[in-house]
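Ex. 9. Protein: Aminopeptidase N.
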Amino acid sequence: MEIRSLTRTEAERRAALVTVERYDVDVDLTDLPEGPEVRCVSTVTFDCHEPGAETFVDCAAQVRSATLNGKPLTPTGDGRIPLPDLTERNVLRVESVQADTTTGQGVHKATDPADGEVYVWMSFEPDEARFVWACFDQPDLKAPHAFTVTAPPAWTVTSNSGDPRVEEVEGARRWTFPDTPPLSVYNTVINAGPFHEIRREVDGHDLGLLTRRSLAAILDRDADEIFTLTGQGLAFFAEAFAMPFPQRKYDQVFVPEFGGAMENYGCVTWSDVFLRRATPTPAESELLAKVLLHEMAHMWFGNIVTMRWWDDLWLNEAFAEFACHWAAERATRFTDAWAGHLAGDKLRAYLSDQGPVSHPIHQPIHDVAQAASIFDNITYPKGASVLQQLMTYVGEERFRAGMTAYFARHAWGSATLQDLVDALSEAGGRDLDTWRTTWLETAGTDRFSLERDGDTVTLVAAGTPRPQVLAVGAYGRNGETLERTALVRVGVTRTRTPVTGLPPEADVLLINDDDLTFATTRPDPTTRDAFFRAAASLPTAISRGVATATVWDMLTTGEATAAEAGRCITAVLAAETSDAVIEPYLTLAADIAELWAPPGERAGLTAEVAAACRRLAADPGRRRIALRGLARTATDPDDLAWLREQAGDDVDLHWRALVREAERGGDVSSETARLLERDPDPDAWVRALTVRAALPDPAAKAEVWQKLAVDRAVPVNSVAQVATVFWRTDQDALLTPYTQRYLDAIPHLHQGGMIPAMVFARQLFPPRAIGPSYIEQARLASREAAPVVRNTLLERSDEVSRMLHSRTPTT
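Predicted structure tokens for Aminopeptidase N:
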């Protein structure tokens, strides 16, 4: 029987009926070193406001026994256990087993290929706790949780709360954790294994970092940076929200085969890919900082105050994404964090918001399956940008006051969008109902242009714009560069808005200067070509980023060619001074050459990017980034030979060079074997598989597809690395059979939970060896797929469709 997804109506009825007093959960992990089973006993104490009524508890694990107030219960087989004839006070006890700990949901067992050690992690968002133990798996039924975990004696166990009592018991150890504060079940966690652990006291907090033993040297290398960022983040948010993090202990656990990071209260779980095997680049260091601060912001927005239902998912994710950039810029060394946001995630949000999966930031969510489909570019980067605009709109001081009131009012409870709007309206002294309706409940992206008539400048919206505040910058030529001569903030309420205070002699007028809002822009048609040439001459990372975003958006809508966009961005690279954006721009330029350019122009544009990489490599601070870019774009043997010479002892660069040589048909088998032997990375086998994926060889393609898409042997956090190389340029004849295999796989892509579903649906979608008719086939095939698969596929298919259009030579 199919596991049922909780509907909003069911959740509202259950929340009206039930108040959960506490969870006592006993977890046995002692089978895992050799076997697959996690055994749990979940005891739920709860009140019923209508004695005699009935409801259900969620449990998608195998139920061994279940009793309610001492009476036996029978599961229905659909992930639920009916709870009949409730009394005013109730005690539910359920014994369950989850044996699918390799490909199942909620809990995962990973074996380190380096030493055979076993690690286990749990991750429950949105509703995967039910796959491990019995619970009321909805966000608003919060309660204290008391975890008792029995684990092998050499293992360390982490959970949400404080310092556990540890006892020796019959060849194992039992970890008894103090009660958590009231938490949603999806915010709870247990991680366990023979971890390498580092602890440090910072400003009264006991901070812990843990990872598998084979990565101990990497964690030791990065520990100072991570501890510094953690201390800076805790101090910033404590001051910004007038509420210090209320628990002394704060752990961060880096685990294998995990996708992304998860904000479990007091115990954040990370994918250990964030522990870079090579020395991190500036962009990789900034990403770690932003993810760390994103998950930390959830301690307040998501854990202390939790959304009532999943239609307010944006209250968690958009706010955390906004807050991580805010904190990075104000409290850490990553002062160009917003520029990095604009160069990466915001460009993806602009594209998504103009495609078939565009949706309001806040929208009705029928059930949890639908909720899993909106962990996307609208909820995250667009939501973050909209909140940045909201802070601009009401003013930062009033924004802070509103957030302080919101947290004070709703701490340890649940809240809705209206609660947040009310708090910000009161603090800001202005009605935000229109702002809420147009920004949060209306899909799509505003677009602005300027009209000049003599000395008069008018900001013109394409359609009715949202109320917002944005800036127009005026720039004048000073030799080879542009200097800002004026910046005018404009309050937009209608289609045409006069802009006063701009000097009439300005050479460039830049709409949305300082990137204060979420809107696309267009240059005046008469200055279009000059705008493309001027982008590299603008004086700051943000101003260049705003111009680059315009050029990128024009490429995706067919208003600029790949050659125009690629050369503009390559020119920006040559002038760029901010480490936050150089790596994203190199990736963007290479993507344009490889994926957007017509076949006849691809080699030339790729060679231009490669030449830019060789120039950048002369700067010691950008050398590693440039050589990585060259490994992707090298177009002749001289480039590859020079790259190998420059790589020296850098194993990471040698792997990248091998991928490029493999793609070009080189015999790399013996060198791959030698490099695999000398690479200390426990996951180096994935690098070797990536080299094989690039080969223009039918047997290699078949082997890689089997491991990647059928066996799912590649860790979810490495799927993109292998799949991107699998779908290589100029291998269409080899790749054509796999386009059909993707269509055949669509009904099964949801298996394993939300993160694998998103990763496989996107990364396996073919960007090559297809035409427009294939896009329609894929969209038709997705109609019966799980919502998360369908939305991911539709978003990716729209992007690829735009690529196909751009690749078609104009006549």
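Check your answer against this statement. The CA atoms of residues 178 and 264 lie 16 Å apart.
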